[in-house]
Backbone:
């Protein structure tokens, strides 16, 4: 891994901190040009498509063909999709099973869910997907689904108590890992007790969750089990850090995730294209996330991704401390890419 890091240019290193959205779920000319010029190192599907495994594999293969020495230092891509189940299943069609909602998955024995996740993960791998933006580790209190727009209304939670959610999060991660698919537990430190959906609205507030909250158990257990990614939410947690959105909070990322829970993998943002951050300039979003301890930025708009890459590059020249933080983030990403066979020497 260190050999790979040392061989990369600064621009290639910064590119590893980006998960850019595929325009219309295709690698079109604009996306390819941006990857070549800005060295973006990971991509994600952004829409619901029903093309099936073979067609999605063609897109994934086209993306991986961009992983040349001049573009990414030979480092291959994480290709990601939102494949939770129920209404949040981005990829369907021939070769993909229809996945039940997470709430229905939570009614299964964990061993059964693990076996099903292995099947679903095998289908993702066949389609060229090696990262699943799942599972949801948020706990929605009993009887409050209708008031919880991001999770409960969409049946995205495994259950209504930390124990049920924990056992099924762990099973889902294990099954995907057996299939060779990385997972991203989300949305730390939890969206189960908010009203608004950060995808569509700003100022989403959690006034309940604390730094030692029992609803954090699904996250802490997933981290102990070796989950490679943790996605941080775009809500504000008044009893943890009322001054910052979680994704921009050193208390949430450096304090809770890294120090309290001992997470050593990749801290990935929820989409920094979301309505919750629309009032913040793209460059400021990128700087704030990385400075707080974040490693990989999800961003769907190419123009915003380019602005962010420029901002990070300027930041590394202005502050030795920030430059060191960028290097640390790059190494966190490369470590997980090494674990999934994506480095040139893998």
Residues:
């Amino acid at each position: 891994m260190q050999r790979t890091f040392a061989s990369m240019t600064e621009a290639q290193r910064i590119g590893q901190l980006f998960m850019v959205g595929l325009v219309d779920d295709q690698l079109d000319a604009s996306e390819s040009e941006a990857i070549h010029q800005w060295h973006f190192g990971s991509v994600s599907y952004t829409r619901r498509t029903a093309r099936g495994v073979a067609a999605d594999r063609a897109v994934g293969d086209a993306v991986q063909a961009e992983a040349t020495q001049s573009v990414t230092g030979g480092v291959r891509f994480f290709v990601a999709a939102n494949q939770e189940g129920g209404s949040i299943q981005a990829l369907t069609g021939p070769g993909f099973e229809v996945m039940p909602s997470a709430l229905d998955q939570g009614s299964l024995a964990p061993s059964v869910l693990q076996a099903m996740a292995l099947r679903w993960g095998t289908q993702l791998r066949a389609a060229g997907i090696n990262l699943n933006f799942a599972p949801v580790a948020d706990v929605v209190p009993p009887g409050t689904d209708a008031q919880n727009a991001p999770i409960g209304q969409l049946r995205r939670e495994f259950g209504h108590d930390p124990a049920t959610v924990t056992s099924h999060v762990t099973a889902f991660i294990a099954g995907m890992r057996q299939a060779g698919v990385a997972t991203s537990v989300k949305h730390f430190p939890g969206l189960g007790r908010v009203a608004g959906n950060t995808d569509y609205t700003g100022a989403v507030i959690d006034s309940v969750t604390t730094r030692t909250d029992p609803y954090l158990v699904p996250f802490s257990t997933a981290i102990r089990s070796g989950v490679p990614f943790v996605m941080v939410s775009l809500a504000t947690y008044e009893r943890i850090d009322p001054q910052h959105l979680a994704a921009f909070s050193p208390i949430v990322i450096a304090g809770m995730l890294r120090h309290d829970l001992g997470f050593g993998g990749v801290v990935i943002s929820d989409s920094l294209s979301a309505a919750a951050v629309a009032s913040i300039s793209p460059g400021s979003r990128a700087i704030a996330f990385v400075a707080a301890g974040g490693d990989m930025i999800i961003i769907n708009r190419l123009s915003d991704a380019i602005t962010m890459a420029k901002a990070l590059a300027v930041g590394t020249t202005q502050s030795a401390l920030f430059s060191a933080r960028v290097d640390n983030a790059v190494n966190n990403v490369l470590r997980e890419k090494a674990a999934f066979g994506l480095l040139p020497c893998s």
In short: Residues 20-303+311-339 form a domain with the TIM Barrel fold (CATH 3.20.20.300).
